[in-house]
Specification:
252 residues, 32% helix, globular, disordered C terminus, TIGR02117 family protein, CHP02117
């Protein structure tokens, strides 16, 4: 009789443990939904004119795409083209993304993902920056026009994550026009590549999602561009957007 009771207790404990394990991903998904719907900087309104930046997405990961030179700020001296194997000579745009080091460096394709890299993405590790030169934004990107002061804040927020002079990581990248750099901070299931992008937009003063660990929870807020993009100094109207191009790759 006592043995049956012990077995009953073990069975109940196992069921409770299984229910707790199942509850973790469900709670995560619920929090992601709420975090994607709740806005920050809710009073922000996109201006009719300014410097346009873009969000590039491959369905999993978001990059922030900025002009190489705009509003008196220049990325070229910080991430020089000599750091890249063969960037497009006419590249006028540069994409920035952040993610966990082992996931970024060890998964050039989806087929390279292993249980170990998934575990790294969940539990966390050092954050690195992925930088890619682009000739022009992709037609599938989302566009955000910023006031000059908002653009400067976004630029400074991304710049600060390099933690000083940008230091290129000895890694071939995914192609001829991208490279990896050391970054400050950690990346994990809470601090994902997409919540990183949302955090930079929040610091710029742009209306964005409170916590979007998945890319869909971020990109839904922003419009599709409508006309050819123009990169360079000064302000540009919202009409001067879009074009063909290359989409940043991988997951964060």
């Amino acid at each position: 009789m006592a043995r049956r009771r012990r077995r009953g207790k073990v069975g109940k404990a196992g069921k409770r443990f299984a229910a707790a394990l199942l509850a973790v991903p469900l709670l995560y998904l619920l929090a992601a939904l709420i975090g994607s719907l709740v806005p920050v900087n809710r009073g922000w309104v996109e201006p009719d004119e300014g410097v346009t930046v873009y969000l590039a997405s491959n369905g999993v990961h978001a990059d922030i795409v900025m002009p190489v030179r705009a509003n008196g700020l220049d990325w070229a001296p910080l991430v020089p083209k000599r750091d890249f194997a063969a960037p497009p000579p006419d590249a006028r745009w540069v994409a920035f993304g952040a993610g966990e080091e082992r996931v970024y460096l060890n998964t050039p394709t989806w087929w390279d993902i292993t249980p170990r890299t998934i575990w790294s993405a969940l539990t966390g590790g050092r954050q690195v920056m992925h930088v890619e030169y682009l000739p022009e934004p992709h037609s599938g990107m989302r566009a955000i026009t910023l006031r000059p002061e908002e653009y400067r804040r976004l630029w400074a927020a991304i710049r600060s994550d390099f933690g000083g002079p940008p230091r290129r990581i000895d890694h071939p990248g995914y192609g001829p026009n991208d490279a990896f750099y050391r970054a400050t901070g950690k990346a994990n299931a809470i601090r994902t590549c997409n919540s990183w992008a949302a955090g930079k937009l929040r610091l710029a003063g742009v209306k964005t999602s409170l916590w979007p660990p998945f890319v869909q929870g971020l990109t839904w807020r922003y419009r599709k561009p409508s006309a050819p993009a123009v990169a360079g100094e000064g302000d540009h109207p919202r009409a001067s957007e879009d074009g063909g191009g290359v989409l940043a790759r991988n997951m964060g």
